[in-house]
Specification:
heterodimer, A: alpha+beta, 6 strands, extended, B: alpha+beta, Beta-Lactamase, globular
Chain lengths: 283, 127
């Protein structure tokens, strides 16, 4: 009778899980953002896709002009920028924590897409805001998966994510939320949802979701998908002029119509014709 | 000046309260918890209440306040043995959070709990 074998510990699913398990401290930079770790928990994420704490607070009028830069200069070296914002009387501790977590969660949505080969880790590097309220990687992954599911329900309107938001110009029905009406007001046909989020200092995820909802409701125009390249029929360019429209044949079976001129006995020309036909089939 | 933990700790002083939390409704992420949760699982309670809040926030029928003032204040779920009380936290900046209270129905006074939670939500963001 063998000894009971305990199951092996679950293998880390990815780089971030490993960082959490190893309780690392430092900054992990990837193509869509930078994570700051303390003892394996994430306390700050910066992503170019999502407005950060400074943009959000400034857009909301919570910080005076240049207040963010002032905080970075005054308290950045001591890594107490967050505390500085509260001590200046610009916001409460509760506001700091809520706004910081909202920004962190929003950035996580984009930054979590992290191919290990494109990531670089700098041990010990800390963020100038300091540690405000760390979140576990598992909680962030679960939260982001739920947000992803909300967005995926509107997948047919995904083309609206990256193109300038053009209001359809139809009367806005009462059944739009306040946030959606605000987006429609700011949409000028030039700014993408990401740019609108930045201008308004609002969640990039929530903006993508609302723009997709507005597109689904027909209130925002969605650019047509790029037309697929026409599927060429082998030997198509060798065809005679198209048959007159008087005799329409419903989808004739693919056929190889090569004019008689190429019915040649010259082996070189025959080879070239076969090659060309084969190439066209690949198109 | 209270942060999330201080406000949740004060919420635990409301008569009949079993547990409290602060949650982001677009993701079900718990920003903070105190006390117990239904079935001992704060994360599940956060995800489940976030579902309820999403259903309310995405439907304009509940947004009848017009342009002025916050649209939604609170949601109350009455169940056998307990109340679930959800209070929206309105911030000057963009956020989607609510305070959640799980209350013992035999011990709690719903009207008192609702008013206390309203004050705590205001305290969290008042400056």
């Amino acid at each position: 009778m063998g000894l009971p074998i305990s199951p092996p510990p679950p293998a880390p699913a990815g780089l971030l899980d490993r960082f959490a398990a190893e309780r690392v401290t430092g900054a992990l930079s990837g193509p869509h953002g930078c994570f700051y770790f303390l003892d394996g928990a994430v306390y700050c994420i910066e992503s170019t896709a999502a407005p950060g704490l400074g943009s959000r607070l400034t857009a909301a009028g919570k910080l005076p002009p240049q207040g963010w830069e002032h905080a970075a200069e005054a308290a950045g070296e001591r890594r107490t920028g967050g505390r500085f914002l509260v001590e200046e009387g610009w916001l409460t501790q509760g506001e700091l924590e809520i706004c910081h977590l909202a920004a962190l969660l929003d950035a996580a949505f984009f930054a979590l897409e992290l191919p290990p080969e494109a990531a670089s880790f700098t041990p010990g590097t800390a963020h100038w805001l300091g540690v405000i309220r760390p979140v576990s990687i598992t909680a962030l992954q679960q939260a982001t998966a739920r947000r992803r599911a909300l967005l995926d329900r509107l997948q047919p309107w995904a083309a609206a994510d990256t193109s300038p938001v053009i209001p359809a110009g139809t009367p806005v029905p009462a059944a739009t939320t306040r946030r959606q009406r605000r987006l429609l007001d700011r949409a000028d046909g030039r700014h993408t949802p990401y740019e609108l989020a930045r201008l308004l200092g609002e969640s990039a995820f929530a903006t993508l979701l609302d723009i997709r909802l507005l597109a689904a409701a027909g209130l925002v125009l969605v650019p047509p998908p790029p037309a697929p390249l026409p599927r060429r029929r082998p030997g198509a360019c060798l065809d005679a002029p198209p048959a007159p429209a008087t005799a329409p044949h419903p989808a004739p079976a693919p056929q190889r119509s090569v004019p008689d001129i190429f019915d040649t006995t010259d082996p070189n020309i025959a080879l070239l014709v076969r090659l060309r036909t084969a190439l066209e089939e690949e198109l | 000046m209270p942060g999330i933990d201080q406000v949740l700790s004060q919420a635990m002083g409301i008569p009949g309260v079993l547990g409290a939390g602060l949650i982001d409704w677009t993701s079900g992420l718990t920003l903070g918890t105190a006390g117990q949760a239904p079935h001992g699982d704060h994360d599940a309670a956060a995800a489940d209440t976030a579902d309820v809040v999403q259903a309310v926030t995405r439907n304009a029928s509940f947004d009848t306040a017009g342009a002025g003032g916050p649209a939604l204040e609170d949601l109350i779920i009455t169940a056998a043995g307990s109340y679930h009380l959800i209070r929206f936290v309105h911030t000057a900046f963009d956020s989607q959070t609510y305070l959640y209270l799980w209350l013992d129905r035999a011990q709690a006074n719903l009207a008192v709990a609702r008013l206390r939670l309203r004050d705590l939500a205001a305290e969290l963001v008042a400056s």
